[in-house]
Amino acid sequence: MTDLNHFAPSGRITFKRKPQRGTYDRDAIYAILDEAFLCHVGFVREKAPFVIPMAYARIGDMLYLHGSHASRLADEARTCQEICVTVTLLDGLVLARSALHHSMNYRSVMIVGPCSLVKENEEKLLAMGSLVEHILPGRTADCRPPDDSEIRRTAIISLPIHEASAKIRSGPPEDAEKDLDLPFWAGVVPLSFVPGMPVPDKTDDNMPERSALYVQTLKERSKVR
After folding, report:
1. Model confidence over 131-177: pLDDT tens digits?
2. What's the domain range around 216?
3. CB-count burial class (<10 Å; 0-12, 13-18, 19+) for 47
4. pTM above the 0.70 mark?
């Protein structure tokens, strides 16, 4: 019986080290994907590994990547090659009494699977809009939509989210008991993503209200963490 709330662990996403930090929970994985802005896409081309930072968006169980038809990744997508997408949110620096036990608090996701080029204009437009909305919700109402030429020139790559896992570390350092009495400070330095004051271009300094409200929401969210 299929568990719709969890991804089935395959050999490629099974946790080998510190499995207690791992999860296949769909909601946990999607929460990380929806909060982060940047992913890294790994693939092998002509026996050489490549890892590319990219913008992305999620619609249901599909991840969309934005690129150029001339890119290496688009070439991989034309033949439905396997890729690996990772996303990481950094939440803190973990400072231990022992140099060996220094670490970081983080939330990360890994997705593997065959990618493909989106060919239907309707799906491309939906994905392109979602990529903008992922950057800033409501932004599609405050910018010009892509024209036919831009749609043709843009490569949208899709990756079904079928094999996915998340790994999460939180909490204090894990010092050995023998080190607890050492005269060194230990603890966590929290980190968060905090947007700065929006900087207008030279032609318009009136930021739309919905955009300004979202920037404020990001600031408030960073205070909670």
Report:
1. 999 999 988 998 999 999 999 999 999 999 999 999 999 999 999 99
2. 193-225
3. exposed
4. yes
